[in-house]
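Input (structure):
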C-alpha cells in the first residue's frame, strides 16, 4: 500500500508474547527444552505467523532445543493446513520414530493436524502448541491429548480499538493510536 491521506491504523498482537507463551508451554509439557527435538510449522506468506514462527525458532534454539528436520517446515496453503501438517508430522515420525518431542505450530488449524498425526502414531509423549484457541483446539486440550496449549487472540478487542480509532478520526481527523497488542492465554 502506498502512503496516502486516508485513514490507516495497525492493530496487531504482540508476536513475541505469542511465541513466548507457546514455547513456554512446550517447555512445561516436556520438562525443559535442552536437547529436545521440536518441529516448527509456519506459513511465511502470513506476516503474523511468519514473525512468531521465526521468534519461536530462535527461542527454542537459544534454550537448547534441536529443530526437527533442521529447519522450520512451511505449510503452503492455509486452506489445507491441517492436512499438510498431518502429513509432515506423520512422515517425520515414520522416518524418525524417536526423533520428536514437541511440535510448535503458528496457528491452531495446522496444530490440529500435528496432534492428529501424533494420535494416529499412538504416541502420548509428544506435545503440540498452537495459536488462536479455536473451539475444537480447546476441546483437544481439555481431552489431554497431544494438543497441550493454545493462545487466544482477542479479536473482539481489536475490532473495538479499530472502531474507536475510526470514531476519533471521524470527529477530529486525527488518530493517535498506531499499534496495540492484545493476547490472552487459553
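Output (sequence):
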Amino acid at each position: 500500500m502506498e502512503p496516502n491521506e486516508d485513514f490507516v491504523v495497525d492493530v496487531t498482537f504482540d508476536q513475541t508474547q505469542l511465541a513466548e507463551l507457546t514455547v513456554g508451554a512446550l517447555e512445561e509439557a516436556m520438562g525443559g527444552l535442552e536437547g529436545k527435538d521440536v518441529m516448527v510449522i509456519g506459513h511465511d506468506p502470513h506476516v503474523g505467523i511468519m514473525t512468531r514462527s521465526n521468534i519461536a525458532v530462535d527461542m527454542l534454539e537459544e534454550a537448547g532445543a534441536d529443530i526437527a528436520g533442521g529447519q522450520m517446515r512451511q505449510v503452503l496453503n492455509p486452506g489445507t493446513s491441517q492436512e499438510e501438517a498431518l502429513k509432515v508430522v506423520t512422515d517425520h515420525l515414520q522416518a524418525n520414530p524417536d526423533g520428536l518431542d514437541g511440535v510448535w505450530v503458528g496457528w491452531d488449524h495446522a496444530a490440529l493436524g500435528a496432534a492428529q498425526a501424533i494420535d494416529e502414531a499412538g504416541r502420548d509423549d509428544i506435545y503440540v502448541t498452537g495459536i488462536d484457541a479455536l473451539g475444537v483446539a480447546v476441546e483437544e486440550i481439555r481431552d489431554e491429548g497431544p494438543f497441550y496449549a493454545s493462545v487466544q487472540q482477542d479479536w473482539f478487542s481489536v475490532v473495538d480499538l479499530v472502531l474507536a480509532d475510526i470514531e476519533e478520526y471521524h470527529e477530529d481527523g486525527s488518530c493517535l493510536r498506531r499499534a496495540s497488542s492484545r493476547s490472552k492465554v487459553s
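Notes: The first helix runs from residue 15 to 30. The radius of gyration is 18 Å.
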